[in-house]
Amino acid sequence: MESWPPGGSGPAEAGPRLRGLRGADLAASASLLSGAGAGAEAGCSAPAVAAVLPAGGSGERMGVPTPKQFCPILERPLISYTLQALERVSWIKDIVVAVTGENMEAMKCIIQRYQHKGISLVESGVTRHRSIFNGLKALAEDQPNCRLSKPEVVIIHDAVRPFVEEDVLLKVVTAAKEHGAAGAIRPLVSTVISPSVDGCLDHSLERARHRASEMPQAFLFDVIYEAYQQCSDYDLEFGTECLHLALKYCHIKAKLIEGSPDLWKVTYKRDLYAAESIIKERISQQICVVMDAKEDEEHVGHRLEEMLKNELNHVKVTSGRDLQQIILEQCYNFVCVNVMTSDFEETQKLLNMLEESNLSILYPVVVISVQFLDYESVPFGQKMENLMQIREFAKEVKKTNILLYGLLVYYPQERITLTITKPEQRQELKRRKKLSAY
Amino acid sequence: MESWPPGGSGPAEAGPRLRGLRGADLAASASLLSGAGAGAEAGCSAPAVAAVLPAGGSGERMGVPTPKQFCPILERPLISYTLQALERVSWIKDIVVAVTGENMEAMKCIIQRYQHKGISLVESGVTRHRSIFNGLKALAEDQPNCRLSKPEVVIIHDAVRPFVEEDVLLKVVTAAKEHGAAGAIRPLVSTVISPSVDGCLDHSLERARHRASEMPQAFLFDVIYEAYQQCSDYDLEFGTECLHLALKYCHIKAKLIEGSPDLWKVTYKRDLYAAESIIKERISQQICVVMDAKEDEEHVGHRLEEMLKNELNHVKVTSGRDLQQIILEQCYNFVCVNVMTSDFEETQKLLNMLEESNLSILYPVVVISVQFLDYESVPFGQKMENLMQIREFAKEVKKTNILLYGLLVYYPQERITLTITKPEQRQELKRRKKLSAY
């Protein structure tokens, strides 16, 4: 179990320590947080963060019979993407999902099938506020037979906002620690108006002075739990805004955080189309470069990384030790560089792991196997053999939806530079991008 | 030139006549309107409707260099779909588009390439309100050298809302005639909040009591033109809401019309993805059944229409006379029924027209050629010949991106019923749907 924030082994209050972090610092902190769980585990007194996801909605606005959080995108339910986005954040300890009794079994199947970790299920209420309240109750200490413990800060997010990033989660949590409550906001797309009872315009609101309240939001647990315990049945039935409850019942003025356009909520059928296209684009923008030995990373890996970063959003270079994790995080594109060996050892290892992972069941995985061979010391016969070998591999793995491309780079030992591979690599990557778009 | 509303040859005020139309009546009226231009043309004193489209925006929220109204969807600029949606409404006489001087030539090319009719271009202003004002000035009678005439009612719409339907346009125009101003509204997706100066929550608005103001809106021309002439520079620079101007300067309380989810505005990149998917879906949901003689429509056409309507949204049955218009309206799916002839005469005619139209340049056109032949009177040799013939056709037209499928139905003369074709047709249609999705 990992705690948040990391490194907090002492009993000191974490608030002041985080108070100074802004902008670029926050981003740096976000990436630091994710790798530093071990330190926190020792002390374990650092404040903990949990998340509550109301997922009891019926999705009536979608115009489809399946509740929108369970609608499939590339054959995987929407909520599974949202859980994945939260799971990736190492400092979120528990995720409580509120679903209807009717969908409880389906939700359990989703958790099992997509190997979600640290999820607790509670039954949702008839309204959004009641579902959130049920989630908070499960986290409160006074619940019997509960493996969950009360967090210091709780994030409230929507099951139908799958594109939440660690950066904005950290910003709302940090602000909630300081202010008691915080929420993401976005500029209004349309002017908001107030109708009169006869269906005519009463007045319009100045667009620049208002914002859309989005998710995620975060609260000191005691603040929001207190607010929910005090609030009226009318609030629970007709209210929509958690920040409003914190203000009304605990006099906490939430800090508002400007969010990115990614925070939008899947509401209508068109949003499912958009989500599908975004997920496809993300998959095509993620690549992992696997090197066969540490010294080669210096030589080729980092220059390849630099080059690829101009064209792709998420580039990872690894010597293969954390491949299992990378595959689990659903990277679908790999460049495997074999410098030291002539028998595609690294590529073979990667292909085995991919086949075992079943990653390619949903979506094709693309592997480009690059092999550097010394022009002078490798005879023509071996060159042909290499070509045949990669073709055989490709034919074999295609059966399991893995598309393998080979790239042989012959070079005189003293003149290996990346400029040789640049154009071919680009072409391969473009071909890959095209392929993965279909 | 067609006027609106149709049939209004007398000088009577059209308002009261329309006042009673609501719900289903309106829908019926909408479809009647489009075919009744000729009657109105004779009298020509019926009130006219024009539309103004501000299209001078830079699309900065999209995060792409091309202004969003010019972003291609299936290789056709977004604004062209919006123009098409307005053009299809026969009672909209003129469409004035306001574009920047920089994009004027590009806009002219779009009009030419997609054969838009009745469009006038004016230069946009630096803000949305200034662009609309320029459009209105072009429609006002006091402009020199202008082929446009002042309409009674003017629709204001956005270039980036391509999915507007005739039904909602008629509703806002009808309401504008009665109330002076009218606009489409939608429920709010997110709660709207008001931030304090220090970036904290000041208060949140009750979601149920507010609405998002969308487009289209419509106004008595004199009302909105008066409002724009009176309004301050501050309004023109920072305002966003035309309904507000009508209220502030002409004391007109606009009638609010509940719109469909289709009215949404393409604002972010994700909206382009959604628009593309919706356009693809629409194309696959539109089908035209071509019959080879009028008497067969009774026999097969209407039963086929009935059946297809259960599975597709837009089904048209024609004896071929208005094929040119149907092709121009971008129908991509055809079922061509040849009952009377055995030589695919109707199919050949349709294929010729399709090839001439260049429709299939952007997107494949699917034609299912159905041929009924009397089982007893047609010898086996001819049956084979028919099969070969359709294959040859298919091979030939595939070069021009037309996908032709043949369906031969052999029957004893006295027993021709549609139940024979039902399962095969369905399969073909499903196959077509799949094909057109790629």
From TrEMBL, chains A, B:
The alphabetized UniProt keywords are:
Cytoplasm, Nucleotidyltransferase, Transferase
**Keyword Zinc-finger carried by entry:** no
So what EC number does this one have?
2.7.7.40
What is the enzyme's class at the highest EC level?
A: transferase
The compartments listed are:
Cytoplasm, Cytosol
The record, for Pfam families, names: IspD, ISPD_C
Q: Which biological pathway?
A: Protein modification; protein glycosylation
Q: Which GO terms describe its cellular component?
A: cytosol
Q: Which GO terms describe its molecular function?
A: D-ribitol-5-phosphate cytidylyltransferase activity
Could you name the domain of life of the organism this protein comes from?
Eukaryota
The UniProt family comment states: Belongs to the IspD/TarI cytidylyltransferase family. IspD subfamily.
Tell me the protein's name.
Answer: D-ribitol-5-phosphate cytidylyltransferase
Q: Which gene encodes it?
A: CRPPA
